[in-house]
Amino acid sequence: MKDRPRWDRKTVFYIIALAVILVTFTALINPPVRTGHPRDVFEIASQAYSRIVPAFLFTMGFLSSPPNFVFYSIAALGILQYNNRRIRRKIERSCIPIPDPRCQRLLDDVAEEAGVRNVELLLLDSSFPNAFTFSKGPKYYVAVTISMLEILETDELRSVFAHEIAHIRNKDRRIKILGLIVGAQYFYQPFVLLMVKAIFRRREYLADETAATLEQTPLPLMSALLKTADYLRGFSGVVDASIPVASFAFAQLPRTGLRRMLSSSPTIEDRISNLMTLLA
Amino acid sequence: MEDTDMRDKNWMRHTIRKTAALSILGPLEARIMEILWRRREASTGEVYDELRKDRSIALTTVSGTFNRLYEKGLLHREVGKGKRGLSYVYRPMMDESKFKQFIAERITRQLLKEYEGPTVSTLVSTLAEDPDKLEELRRRIEELSKKRHKPHEG
């Protein structure tokens, strides 16, 4: 007599349907970006897709035999990595070709102080004041938008660079990837998801603290955060969706309630409060 | 009766200001546009320095206002080297006279859409205060009606 398979097709279908509902619901409550521009719809869809599909694949792997688990996990990681590369290429293509030696020098100084090598500056054409970091092979990139350069003074910009370099030094990229994998594997466990998000937020606070230590004062970073919050209060432009999955964005639009709990980044006000404890 | 008329006129004036004029440009936006028309192009930092001579203002406010004007389609921008390093350099999409024409057309169309009767009568009664303007209006109406009737005559 043949053994009945552990999971028949109907059960797998129901699990997948549940996963779709749960992940879509989470994406609706806490979208990767909020934008009013039609050209970003594809970007948002592809980012959501690149999160949902790995979650499915991990679930399939989790429900099947160990060799299949390895296969599904590799496929899921491949999709995450593909999306990361696609966004990275998009950023490299869209960055402004005009060099800014003053900013590059500033970044080099901060990187040298932190003991991080091979860091290049990328300037992005965006009205949204933001900065983030990503890597390609042995090289690290710190991307900063023109709006950020416009509103910040030199010492504030230096502190933003210190924050981004701190992410590199603290190896936050690896933690984010690990967190995303765990989150995708246990997406049906709200406690795990909240824990992962809380860890991401903690890494952001830690990067602020490291930046304050590197700069020997948290004041310029606090000032940069205040200016960013002030600018974003009346912001009506396009929020660029092209930020690599494994990156931590410096600035976020204000979030409250459930969105705040599900966000990977703390609010700017919380970050300023955290930095104020360093002053005491 | 006169009081009621006055109140109505005040309410109307207030509504027009709220719905038509202010929805197009705020006071700071108007000031920035003035500076840009005069200078033809300027970076955020340059305009900020000029505004700071008259009043205390934050750079984030100026930068945010520039962004709003850009989103409204009134400015063109490109990245250039400004006084404070790399920055957006803005240029008006249209000169002052074209912009005034654009605003007048937009306000009039909005008024005609919302309050057609009162707008036409106010326009005529206001122009009637000056015989030359009334004559010009009559001439323009005649020209327009001639243009409209020409194809049918041919």
Task: Write structural notes for this entry.
The complex is a heterodimer of chains A (280) and B (154). With 280 residues, chain A is mainly α. Chain A has two domains: 9-92; 95-279, Metalloproteases ("zincins"), catalytic domain (Zincin-like), CATH 3.30.2010.10. Chain A contains eleven helices and three strands, in the order ααααβββααααααα. A three-stranded mixed beta sheet of chain A has the order 1-3-2, sandwiched between helices. In chain A, strand 2 (131-136) and strand 3 (139-145) form a beta hairpin. Chain A is globular, with a radius of gyration of 20 Å. The N and C termini of chain A lie far apart (74 Å). Chain B has 154 residues and is mostly helical. Helices cover 75% and strands 12% of the residues of chain B. Chain B is built from seven helices and three strands. Chain B has helices spanning 2-24, 27-39, 44-54, 59-71, 96-114, 116-128, 131-153, and strands at residues 42-43, 75-82, 85-92. A three-stranded antiparallel beta sheet of chain B has the order 1-3-2. In chain B, a hairpin with a 2-residue loop joins strand 2 and strand 3 (85-92). In chain B, helix 1 (2-24) crosses helix 5 (96-114), helix 3 (44-54) crosses helix 4 (59-71) and helix 5 (96-114) crosses helix 6. Chain B starts with a helix and ends with a helix. The relative contact order of chain B is 0.09. The model of chain B is unreliable at 6-22 (pLDDT under 50). Classes of the chains: A mainly alpha (280), B mainly alpha (154).
Which descriptors apply to this entry?
A: 280 residues; mainly alpha; Zincin-like; 3-stranded mixed β-sheet; 3 strands; globular; B: 154 residues; Arc Repressor Mutant, subunit A; 2 domains; 3-stranded antiparallel β-sheet; 7 helices; elongated
Average pLDDT confidence of chain A is 81
Distance between the termini of chain A: 74 Å
In CATH terms, what is the architecture of the largest domain in chain B? Orthogonal Bundle
Q: Which CATH class of the largest domain in chain B is shown?
A: Mainly Alpha
Name the chain pair whose interface involves the most residues: A-B, 20 and 20 residues
Class inferred from helices and paired strands of chain A: mainly alpha
Helix fraction of chain B by DSSP (H/I, runs of at least 4): over 70%
Strand order of the largest sheet of chain B: 1-3-2
Count of folded domains of chain A:
2
What spatial order of strands do you see in the largest sheet of chain A? Answer: 1-3-2
